[in-house]
Amino acid sequence: MNQKSADDNHTPLEEMLENLPEQASPADLEQKCLDALDVLQAAEQPTDKPTPATRPNRLLWQGLAAAAAAVLVVSLISVWLPMGRQKRVAMSHERRPRSYAMEFPPGDIAPEERIADGAEPAAAPAPGDYGIEAEKVKMMDSQPEPPAAPAPVTTALPDEELRAGRTYNLEIELAEQTPESALRRYGTGDHATRGYNAQLNIPELEAVDQVSRYPSVPVIGESYSRWETATTPTRPWRDDSGERQKIARKELELAVQDVEEAYDEAVSIIEKAGGYVDTENITVEESGDKQALISARVPVDQLDDVVAGLRKLGEVISLVGESEDRTKEYDGRGAEIRDLGAEECELVAKYEQEKNKARKRELYRRIIALREQNSRYKATLKDLSDRTHFAYLELILVEKLSPRAFLNDIVENMAFLGSWIGATAVFWVPALIIILAVWRRKGAAVTS
Amino acid sequence: MLLSLLTMTTGAGLPEQLKRRDRPAWDQMVHQQHKRIFNLHLRLTGDTEAAADLTQETFPEAYQNAHTYEGRSKPEVWLYGVALNLNRSWWRERGRNEPPVELCEDIPDPAPTAEQLAQLSQQAHVVYAAVQRLPETYRRVVALRYFAGVPATEIAAVEEVDAGTVRWRLHHALRKLWVMLVHDGAAFADAAGKEERNESEIS
Q1: Which of A113, A429, B2, B52 is 20 to 30 A from B134 in CA distance terms?
Q2: Which of B39, B167, B177 is opposite residue A23, by nearest beta carbon?
Q3: Among A324, A358, A377, where does a domain finish?
Q4: Considering A259, A293, A324, which residue would you say is the last residue of a domain?
Q5: Measured between CA atoms, how close is A1 to chain B, in angstroms?
Q6: Highest-confidence range of A14-28, A133-147, A344-358, B46-60, by mean pLDDT?
Q7: Beta-strand relationship, A219-228 and A167-174
Q8: pLDDT band at residue A283 under the 50/70/90 scheme
Q9: How many domains does chain A have?
């Protein structure tokens, strides 16, 4: 109302301007205007499309182009991410340190126990191998118990007849992880721990009893087996093969379709070749990616065949092989064992001939000490022999990216990007609206 | 049928029809507005032939850009806006340099006498020439308000400014126009000559 009244309050000058006479338009002006519209309409009709230069069309096409570019960028990123990820996984495998020495420390469990559980230890060597007379060996086997030996504790022992002065293998299963230092108190022979199991060579019967009544760690189960009698001379070392003693290692990384299936097949191949799986580890990540790591031991002469068989399981990502010559150490340790065996035989002969009880006891202790030392050497040699006769094989199985997994990765990445775009919408949506508004205003200025 | 007839006669729904580029609606628009558009161009160009040509261009231009009409003003007002844009382009093609928009606070409000108004009514071309010399901003509002008879509120809608701004522009445009008519134009030449002579005699 006020606005209208404001418009109505005209000054004389305004009234004059409003009342200026209009000039008559040309007579044919209206028809010309209509003709111009006809021409325009006729020009548009053949294509039956809106004006090509109209802004909505342009906007639509530009919007479509922008959307297409965005989809293209998102697709490229989505494709790049899984590929880069696969590459990174492969690179991480390449960078993994190969610390065989840490995984397989010397002095490990005797190989024959791992090859076949419960198998009997190696048969006693022929007397001639020791380089001494057979009679002496027989005499040592029938050696009387030393006078200083304590009375055997039979309550915690199995049915097998145990005699003092003999070394037994005690295998106990403990409820808790027990440090090696704690177990060392009860066994002076070779020992090793692995997880909850402990193996001790117990030279004294009272020590056996102590272990069976281990104070701090509850014992779940225990089994005793005779390791070697004290009177059996230590098996001397003699290797007539003349072959170089080498520790061979190979690492094979495979990309397979199904990790679990490939794992089973790999184990089968290894075991058929006379090898065994030492450690194994299958990892299933949150994303569903599976990965298996198998550390196996394979007879050296079968290593190439095993590797060839494993290669068929999938696509080889990497294959690394190396070897280490330990012939010198092998020979040296064997010579030491032989010398200790000979010395032991001499001491046994002296022990037989000795009449004095005190000296006899001293000889007996020396014999026991020699046997312990020899036993350690022998274990070391066995381990070395094991390592030279059984090659290390580390097999890594990673899952090959199947098309489905590839698509899944793309979908996951797109979902991630979508969430990211959604999270940042608070920034770019207003910016987009402002840009569009400016755009529209600019376009509208042409006509209005 | 009855509804369409009703809408055609009352004008309701015409914006939509124009936007859809319904030809009958546009024919009606041409019939109703071609004289007003012609006079608008004529007053702003001073050239009958150019005004006719610009009128013929105005309707196809508006028809082509019918989708940009947002209904903020009456269709004819929007059409005047299209006409003024074409008119501006016409002047630019002729190398016109727009004068700066200057504030004229020190100029008194126009107080024409009845005699002066009568003279101006007789010399319309002088008034048109003065309007053509106004800056673009002022020229548009003057043309829309006094030549096309559009209220200030609708001018504000089509110019996308406040109504107060339109009135302010009109106020300053009139003062500037009056200065041009009195001192710079051919109107009241005798009176101006007399004033100048008196001033020189005094000095």
Answers
A1: B52
A2: B39
A3: A324
A4: A324
A5: 11
A6: B46-60
A7: antiparallel
A8: confident
A9: 3
> Which value, in Å, is the radius of gyration of the alpha carbons in chain A?
45
Q: Maximum Cα–Cα distance for chain B, whole Å?
A: 78
Residue B127 and residue A7: Cβ atoms within 8 Å? no
Tokens read off for A152: 């055997």
What digits encode the pLDDT tens for the residues B118-176?
Answer: 887 788 888 888 888 888 888 889 988 988 888 888 888 888 888 889 888 888 888 88
Q: Report the candidate in B117, B141, B130, B35 with the shortest Cα–Cα distance to residue A22.
A: B35
CA B53 to chain A, closest CA, distance in angstroms equals 9
Is B22 in the A-facing interface, judged by CB distances under 8 Å? no
Tell me whether residue A59 is exposed, middle or buried, using C-beta atoms within 10 angstroms of its C-beta: 0 to 12, 13 to 18, 19 or more: middle
d(Cα A267, Cα A254) in Å, to the nearest integer?
Answer: 14
CATH of the domain at B75: 1.10.1740.10
Q: Does B13 touch chain A (CB under 8 A)?
A: no
* CATH code of A211's domain: 3.30.70
Q: What is the pLDDT of residues A284-333, one digit of tens each?
A: 777 677 888 999 988 888 888 999 999 988 888 888 888 888 888 888 88
B27 contacts A13? CB cut-off 8 A: no
Instruction: State the count of interchain CB pairs (< 8 A) between A and B.
Output: 124
Question: Residue B109: inside a domain, yes or no?
Answer: no
Number of domains in chain B: 2
Tokens 């003349």 sit on residue: A242
Which structural domain, as residue segments, surrounds residue A421? 55-84+409-447
Quick: pLDDT tens for B152-163: 888 888 888 888
User: B43, B61, B93: which is the final residue of a domain?
Assistant: B93
- Chain A residue nearest residue B80, CA to CA: A448
Domain containing residue B65: 14-93
The closest of A3, A265, A398 to B154, measured between CA atoms, is A3
**Residue B84 carries which side chain, given as an amino acid letter?**
L
The ipTM is 0.77
Least confident of A172-176, A218-222, A257-261, B89-93: A218-222
Domain match, B138 and B72 both: no
In a domain? residue A3: no
* CB atoms A12 and B82 under 8 Å: no
